[in-house]
Design a protein that fits this description.
Among the domains are: about 60 residues, Ubiquitin-like (UB roll) (Roll), CATH 3.10.20.310; about 110 residues, Cell division protein FtsQ/DivIB (Rossmann fold). The protein has six helices and twelve strands. The strands form two sheets. Strands 6-5-4-7-8-9-10-11-12 form a nine-stranded mixed sheet, covered by helices on one side. A three-stranded mixed sheet has the order 1-3-2, covered by helices on one side. About 35% of the residues lie in helices and about 25% in strands. By secondary structure, the protein is α/β, with parallel strands linked by helices.
């Protein structure tokens, strides 16, 4: 049996020098094309970067105007501008708005402060303040929404709190005391008596304060009827004498007692 002949394998043909040079030239051309494209890309990016930088520099305008919205006579635009005088001249985009807002809100009179940029050179500040209706416990103020706040030193001169009624009572009772003040004031005003404050103690007993310092003790029950008992006789007995009276005590079943600042003469007493 004859052995099978081994097939003859052809050797690969070695490229000629010209073929090698042509292949190298093609590869170099492709590489140069890639490098050229990258160079164009980087050049465009650089131009865009320079343009962006120039535009950004154009945006860096110093703050020259501060517009205040919501200003009142109590918290004026002049006051806000004084508080923010340090940011004038600063690049508008470098102003820390949160820091500016926090600075304004250190004044406990403010309930709201919003600050925003308006290009090219303006900060717009929107504020809102408490609207106090009475003093509470001597050193606090009662807001029209029923909340109590503590004025701080920055708020001096914003509101004339001395003209507000002076209320006092247990914690959490501020609105109830205010409503009682409103209910009693008209009856006294009808007799020409100016009510300046109301005090409620821990037992719920009420004391009315009048202009001039006279105190009316009403107690805890039958408040309106007790006060009316006084007002019924006021025109004939006490009219024109309240500047001499320290305390009127209505906490009796019938009648009331009067404590004089300086007791009247004996003849007046007898009369």
């Amino acid at each position: 049996m004859a052995a099978a002949a081994r097939p003859v394998q052809a050797r690969p043909k070695t490229p000629t020098l010209r073929e090698q040079w042509d292949a190298f030239a093609q590869m170099a051309v492709r590489l140069l094309a890639v490098l050229f494209n990258w160079a164009i890309t980087f050049a465009l990016l650089g131009l865009l970067g320079l343009a962006g930088w120039g535009f950004w520099q154009k945006l860096q305008v110093p703050v020259t105007h501060i517009v205040v919205q919501g200003a009142t006579p109590e918290a004026s635009a002049h006051w806000v501008r004084q508080e923010l005088s340090r940011v004038k001249g600063e690049d508008i985009w470098r102003v820390d708005l949160a820091d500016v807002q926090a600075q304004l809100l250190k004044n406990t009179w403010l309930t709201h402060a919003d600050v925003r940029r308006v290009w090219p050179d303006t900060l717009v500040v929107e504020i809102a303040i408490h609207h106090p209706i009475a003093r509470w416990q001597g050193d606090q103020l009662l807001d029209s929404d029923g909340s109590v706040f503590q004025p701080n030193g920055m708020s001096r001169g914003l509101v004339n709190t001395e003209a507000l009624p002076n209320l006092s009572g247990p914690d959490g009772r501020q609105w109830a005391v205010w409503e009682r003040y409103l209910s009693l004031k008209p009856a006294l005003a009808a007799q020409g008596l100016e009510m300046t404050g109301l005090i409620e103690n821990s037992r719920g007993s009420l004391d009315v304060m009048l202009q001039g310092g006279t105190k009316i003790r009403l107690g805890t029950e039958q408040i309106e009827s007790r006060l009316q008992r006084l007002l019924d006789v006021y025109p004939k007995t006490l009219a024109g004498k309240f500047d001499q009276i320290a305390v009127i005590d209505l906490r009796y079943t019938n009648g009331f007692s009067v404590q004089w600042r300086n007791p009247p003469a004996a003849a007046e007493k007898k009369k």
